[in-house]
Design goal:
There is one protein chain. By secondary structure, the protein is an all-alpha fold. It is 62% helix and 0% strand. It contains 53 helices and no strands.
């Protein structure tokens, strides 16, 4: 019987709650029609009548009024049981309900409010939890509209009887309004936005004493709506005229800062189903086994284009609404910080990522040991500390975000925020969450300016204005709360706060973030004699620029020396005591240098079409471009980075040149082995990029002095480990450039760092094959998060390299030196699907790489095979090479029960004999394992033998059954040991074949 209440899939089991309601209705349906019996029901009859009436009202709207009257007549518990039934249905079945049942539900809720039913507050809260953030489907928008309309219609009753429901409603609608207001031109949302704004403003203006109970998260929600005119007025009064709210005792917004928000509010923005899945993940899933759970969670709850905003609410819930027990904390269950790190990496939109970081650190800003829980601030600290070994970029971007929050969140009340953050650090250290804050301050992988900033902040303690240092990031706009001097300075922190651009979003790839890289050093101070105040700094650099121009036609060495002084002096401005404003910007200086070089016949950033064999090639080793690149790699200073970005924005191929330099440096380091630097008697022209790079590195460490004894001593002690660290640092600098370039480009262009990397790789297409092959290996090794699984890069690889180089790469893949395709089955599937349109030679090459990698990876080959064969994309003309590759891949894999099961269940469509061919191969190479796995597979299916091979059941592949029958016939039915392990007989197999 089809359900009238729920939308149930054909093969889905009956829901027990719906079944109990329907059975009660079918049993008591005659009693639900007039005339009603006058007897008093027993407790059991009363429960059954409530179930029957509820089912009747929801499924038979035309009889609803009569059945509700009967409910009024028999009620003995203040509608408590009836409301509890309604709440259970909302929590567990709302998403499956048919449309008519949802409409009837809202009508029933209105009736329950009218009679002041016991438990109506819980029912309303349950309905609010069904409003999904970022969901713009008609059903979700309808629920938003109906509930807010209901709240306005029942306003007086709610204020008098259930004021806490109004508070939960305000929290919910402030949150969803931030989603709805992002599309001001959408007519479908216009009426909904109007009524939502009306409800929120009415509550804030008329019942502000209720709103105060929400606590500090009220401010966080209002910040996302500051661009809405109605809320701008609220902001103005909150900061400048708190008396406008006519609430006794409310005198300043800082009172809200000090009030912790209850964890029940964070449950409002995640559905009960989402909550149960999150709690399961955080209490039962082992660390290392979470990937498939996370992938399922993303598909289930975050797959919509705008669903990403839900991550903000999930992070707040994890921090403040889920506190694991000590047993869970000490177990190998995936910790909260790891889940939050995964969620952060899942953010695709920058404003969502910033809001997620704000949600993570929000309690840090106002932390008070007397009222706040250390568990609320623990995940952020552990995420920063535990990311250091492999994903230091995550640590960098989070720590920088926190320090920027301290400075920019509310400048007039900065003392409160400084105290909150320092209290958080202190409490976390005292309670043993981390051994010491020194783990951050002493981290070599973090940039020195960031560590210096953190150290000064912690040393300043509760000082209102801790000393700041310049970080290598773009200028950050003011995010102060409105003040009496300028209300316009108030902006939404989460929407505009600049992320740490040197820190990539995805911290994958250990070599790119090796904490041993000693490349980032403090600003050089060797040219301090050049500058003493602001005017002398600018004049000195201007004089250097003029000298550079005058000597441009002389020896190239002199030009390079002066240019080096210009770059180091410009980067070193922050290391001197200057007064006033410094007028010479990175953009203007970069423009002057480029112009003067061009006038004298020197072209900046000319990419290498081929790598020359001679080591004294001026264009590569001693050029102005090489000097700029080296200085940027060593320093990665804000001013130098801005200069490089300025050249890039003006059309210079900076990325191509930087990548060319880094790849050649890596190649020479690879070829050098343990070769030491040559002695000082050798001429500079005899040095290649590697040796000159090392020489310049020691010069940089010694303040630009090339003849210092320290430099000679360092040269004598150089070793291969240092060479490796220098290569790591060069790739890190290139990654930094990509991240900044991505953020400086037009957002509408949707240019990712991976796309920029692919574009830069094009300049290497004419390199020698040996060097080109090594370059691709380096890309996948050092920049794995930007290259792994990227179709364009992989296609370029198989297009440029010949078969001999592909085979050499297969050896390195087999040794697990790097990965080309990754472990995401979906990514590999789409890559294989798209490769059908490639040339035959390219397909053969890519399948050689795929086979080599999947043979040693953890990818579920069985899942990949099933997805390919069941997708309907296999055409004999275009997919033959792919199927051949899968056949060879299966041949080299062990016939596990999962893989054998997948082969047995392949559809009988294209390439029908594939399953038989795979089984025949295994019968020769791994016969005992094959038949053990086959027995295991058939045993699992044996329990459902009666329904297994029907027209609606599971179909076994015909070629597999045919081969098994043939195999047993050739054995003369003598192998009883094998047959005894199988759970079906030969006759059963023949019957399968006839289906």
């Amino acid at each position: 019987m089809a359900s009238k209440l729920l939308k149930i899939a054909p093969l889905e089991a009956q829901n027990q709650i719906e079944l109990s309601l329907r059975q009660a209705f079918e049993l008591l349906e005659p009693q639900l029609r007039p005339p009603f019996p006058l007897t008093i029901p027993t407790p059991e009859e009363y429960s059954q009548l409530n179930r029957a009436i509820l089912y009747g009202v929801l499924c038979e709207p035309h009889f609803a009024k009569i059945q509700i009257k009967y409910l009024h007549a028999i009620v003995t518990d203040g509608y408590c049981f009836f409301v509890n039934l309604l709440t259970t249905i909302v929590d567990e079945l709302y998403s499956k309900r048919v449309k008519s049942a949802r409409i009837q539900l809202i009508s029933l809720v209105s009736v329950m409010i009218y009679v002041s039913a016991v438990g109506i507050d819980g029912l309303l809260v349950s309905l609010l939890r069904q409003i999904v953030g970022g969901d713009f489907s008609d059903g979700n928008l309808w629920l938003c509209f109906e509930l807010v309309s209901l709240f306005l219609r029942k306003w007086d009753w709610l204020v008098e009887e259930e004021p806490q429901v109004l508070r939960t409603g305000l929290y919910t609608y402030l949150r969803v309004l931030s989603d709805h207001c992002r599309f001001p031109g959408d007519s479908k949302l216009e009426a909904l936005r109007r009524i939502e704004i009306e409800f929120c403003i009415k509550l804030l203006r008329e019942q502000f004493h209720l709103c105060l109970r929400i606590g500090r998260d009220l401010i966080r929600l209002l910040q996302d709506l500051v661009h809405v005119p109605e809320f701008q007025a609220v902001w103005k009064d909150l900061v400048l005229n708190p008396g406008e709210f006519r609430t006794q005792g409310f005198e300043d917004i800082s009172q809200l800062y000090r009030q912790r928000t209850s964890s029940r509010y964070f449950l409002l923005r995640i559905t009960p189903e989402m909550e149960s899945q999150l709690r399961f993940l955080l209490t039962h899933v082992k660390l290392g086994s979470q990937k498939r759970h996370q992938a399922w969670f993303l598909r289930k709850f975050l797959s919509g284009s705008e669903r990403e905003t839900l991550i903000i609410d999930i992070v707040r819930f994890i921090c403040c609404g889920h506190h694991p027990s000590n047993d869970i904390i000490q177990s190998d269950v995936i910790p909260r910080w790891a889940v939050i790190g995964w969620l952060l990496k899942s953010c695709r939109k920058s404003y969502v990522e910033a809001n997620v970081k704000l949600a993570l650190f929000y309690d840090w800003l106002f932390f008070d040991e007397r009222i706040d829980n250390i568990m609320n601030v623990e995940p952020a600290m552990l995420l920063m500390v535990n990311s250091i070994p492999k994903y230091v970029a995550m640590t960098h971007t989070l720590l920088e975000f926190l320090l920027l929050l301290v400075d920019n969140f509310d400048s007039e009340r900065k003392d409160i925020i400084v105290k909150g953050v320092t209290s958080s650090f202190g409490m976390l250290a005292r309670k043993g969450v981390v051994g010491s804050i020194h783990v951050l301050i002493s981290c070599d992988a973090l940039s020195p300016p960031l560590k210096e900033w953190l150290g000064r902040f912690l040393k300043a303690g509760v000082s209102k204005e801790p000393q700041q240092v310049h970080l290598p990031c773009t200028s950050v706009p003011s995010f102060n709360l409105p003040s009496s001097t300028t209300l316009e300075t108030q902006t939404v922190i989460a929407g505009e706060l600049t992320e740490s651009k040197c820190a990539p979003n995805d911290g994958v790839g250990t070599k790119a973030f090796d904490s041993s890289v000693p490349i980032s050093v403090e600003p050089v101070t060797s040219y301090s004699s050049l500058v003493v105040n602001c005017e002398s700094v600018e004049d000195a650099i201007e004089n250097l620029v003029h000298r550079f121009v005058e000597t441009a036609r002389r020896s190239n060495t002199i030009d390079i020396q002066i240019l080096e002084k210009i770059l180091l002096s410009f980067a070193n401005i922050d290391g001197h005591k200057v007064t006033g404003a410094f007028a010479l910007s990175p953009q203007s200086l970069s423009s002057k240098i480029a112009k003067e070089l061009e006038l004298n016949g020197h072209k900046l950033f000319s990419p290498l079409e081929s790598i020359p064999n001679i080591s004294n090639c001026d264009d590569v080793v001693h050029s102005a471009t090489a000097l700029i690149i080296r200085t940027f790699i060593f320093s990665q200073h804000e001013r130098l980075l801005e200069m490089v970005l300025s050249w890039s924005r003006h059309g210079f191929p900076v990325g191509k040149c930087l990548l060319s330099y880094v790849l050649r440096l890596a190649y020479e380091a690879h070829m050098s082995g343990d070769v030491m630097l040559p002695d000082n008697s050798m001429k500079a022209n005899d040095l290649g990029i590697l040796f000159l790079h090392m020489d310049e590195y020691f010069s940089f460490l010694n303040g630009g002095r090339k003849d210092s004894p320290e430099a000679d001593l360092s040269t004598a002690k150089v070793d291969h480990q240092l060479v490796a660290n220098l290569v790591d640092g060069a790739f890190s600098a290139y990654r930094c450039f990509l991240m900044y370039s991505r953020n400086s480009l037009d957002k509408a262009a949707d240019v990712t760092p991976a796309r920029l990397l692919f574009s830069d790789l094009g300049s290497c297409s004419k390199w020698e094959k040996q060097i080109l092959k090594f370059s691709f290996c380096s890309i996948f090794c050092y920049l794995s998060d930007l290259s792994t699984g990227e179709e364009d890069i992989i296609k370029l690889l198989v297009t440029l390299l010949d078969q001999a180089d592909i085979v050499l790469m297969q050896f390195e893949i087999g040794l697990k030196k790097f990965s080309i395709f990754g472990e995401n089955t979906e990514t590999i599937f789409y890559l294989i699907k798209n490769s059908f349109n490639w040339g035959l030679l390219e397909q053969h090459k890519v399948w050689g790489l795929i086979r080599s990698e999947l043979a040693v990876s953890k990818v579920q080959v069985e899942k990949l095979i099933l997805e390919i064969f069941c997708s309907g994309i296999l055409d004999p003309n275009s997919a033959s090479i792919a199927v051949e590759g899968l056949l060879m891949l299966c041949s080299c894999r062990m016939p596990t029960p999962e893989l054998v099961g997948a082969i047995m269940l392949l559809p009988n469509t294209a390439f029908q004999d594939f399953s038989a061919a795979v089984l025949a191969t295994w019968a020769v190479s791994n016969s005992s394992v094959l038949f053990d796995s086959l027995a295991n597979f058939l045993e699992k299916l044996g329990n459902e033998k009666g329904d297994l091979f029907t027209s609606t059941g599971i179909r076994i592949n015909h070629s597999a059954i045919s081969w098994l029958l043939s195999y047993f016939n050739t054995q003369g039915m003598k192998d009883n040991d094998i047959l005894s392990k199988l759970s079906v007989s030969i006759l059963d197999m023949k019957s399968m074949l006839q289906l």
